[in-house]
Amino acid sequence: xxxxxxxxxxxxxxxxxxxxxxxxxxxxxxxxxxxxxxxxxxxxxxxxxxxxxxxxxxxxxxxxxxxxxxxxxxxxxxxxxxxxxxxxxxxxxxxxxxxxxxxxxxxxxxxxxxxxxxxxxxxxxxxxxxxxxxxxxxxxxxxxxxxxxxxxxxxxxxxxxxxxxxxxxxxxxxxxxxxxxxxxxxxxxxxxxxxxxxxxxxxxxxxxxxxxx
Length: 213
Description:
By secondary structure, the chain is mainly α. Helix content is 81%, strand content 0%. It has six helices and no strands.
C-alpha cells in the first residue's frame, strides 16, 4: 500500500479495505468517512458563501470555512495515523524475547504501543467532535438548497467518531496502568455524549428546515 491512504484511488481504497490485510482497518476507514463528512459541510458553506449578499454573514461564513479547512487537514492525518499506530504495535510484538532483558524491553515496547494505539483514536474522535461543532455553526449560515449536505456530513462524522472510538474500547483491557484506563474511559464517554448531542441538534435543525414550505 502507498505511504498515505489519500494517495489511493477510491477503487483501490475500497479493494484494500475489503481484503484480508488488516489495514486500513476500522479506525482508518472511520476517519476517511469523517473527513468526507466534514468536506460535505465545507462544500455547503462554500456554495452558500457564493450566494451570500449580506456582508456580516459572508464574513462569518468565510471564517467558518477557514476553520473547517484547517480541521479537515487534521482529520485526513488521523486516517493515516491509525495505520501507523497498528504497525507500531505489530513491530513491538515481533521483538525478540530470548532472555530476560529482551523480554523486559519487548513488554515495555508493547505497553507503550498499546497506549499510543489508544491515544491515537481518542485524539481523532476529539477532532471529529470539533468537525461536528463546525456543522452546528454551519446550519445558520447554509442556504436551504444545500442544507441536506450539512445533515449528511454530520451523520458521517458522528458515525466516524463512533467507529474510531471502538479502537479505544478494544485497547482498554490491554492497558496496564489503571489510571490511564479510567482517564481514557472518561474521555471516550464524554466525547461520545457530546457528539451525540451536537449531531442530534444539527439533524433536527436540518429536518426542520427541509420540512418548511
